[in-house]
Amino acid sequence: MKKMIWVFVFLTAVHDGFGAGDISVSGGKSAGMGYTGVTGTGLWAVCNNPSGMAFSKGLQVGVFAESRFLLSDLSSGSLALTSGGKYGAVGLYAGFFGNQLYKESKVVTGYARKFGHHFSAGIVFDYLHISQPADYGNLDIMSFEAGLMYRPDNKWAIGIHVVNPVPIYLTKDKTEKLPTAFRTGFSRSFSGKAELSAEIEKSLSGKPVIRAGLEYHLHKRFSLRTGFASEPQTVTAGAGMLFGRLRLDLASSWQPVLGYSPQIGVEWKINDR
After folding, report:
1. Three-state DSSP class for 103?
2. What is the pTM (predicted TM-score) of this model?
3. What's the rounded Cα separation, in Å, for the pair 155 and 142?
């Protein structure tokens, strides 16, 4: 009976557009700031908005893990690597989610570059493998994501991110397809002491989702974060600590019905180039 319940939960998530191929946000900073990330320029831009990779330099690598609602069957993990330089930036991302009954594995690779000093564009190609009960059959799917970013100065940033912009069908009869989703938003830095971010996400079949987050630097090596998301209603909090080239991010979200989801992220900046 337990197995049938998990099958129902996972398949409902996929069919409602909250699972396979939907927009996913990774990284401890984003998790603590209401899952915002469309204007991010750090390591996790490869997943959150590929155009952000173009504004970062050097080689970075990191891991991120989440225990969703403190359930091992809903845990997820990811690994990212980006390298930026004179001729643009490349990125690699790999993530997984699920259990023995239903599992998603996603690999992303792509490229971004700046156009002038203020604009950037990026594209990544996605490979998604879905492992599910034999009656449904496993799936191997290819898609892509694209993003744009405008940073007029050191304070403001505006980002756009689109996932699965062309129809990618999951079944031969074309009754199910990956969700097409868009995100746009902005961030504002205040004298290097605080950062405010806000964005809106909309899929073709779902309700709009509003997210916002705030980061405050108590010290150049320590910051506190908070945020919220509207659908489902979620409150987040987190902290970031810098140890030389190593950064540790801790975060947790709280959903009134389902409870807490703790997250942890570790990033290592190997060089600056």
Report:
1. strand
2. 0.89
3. 36
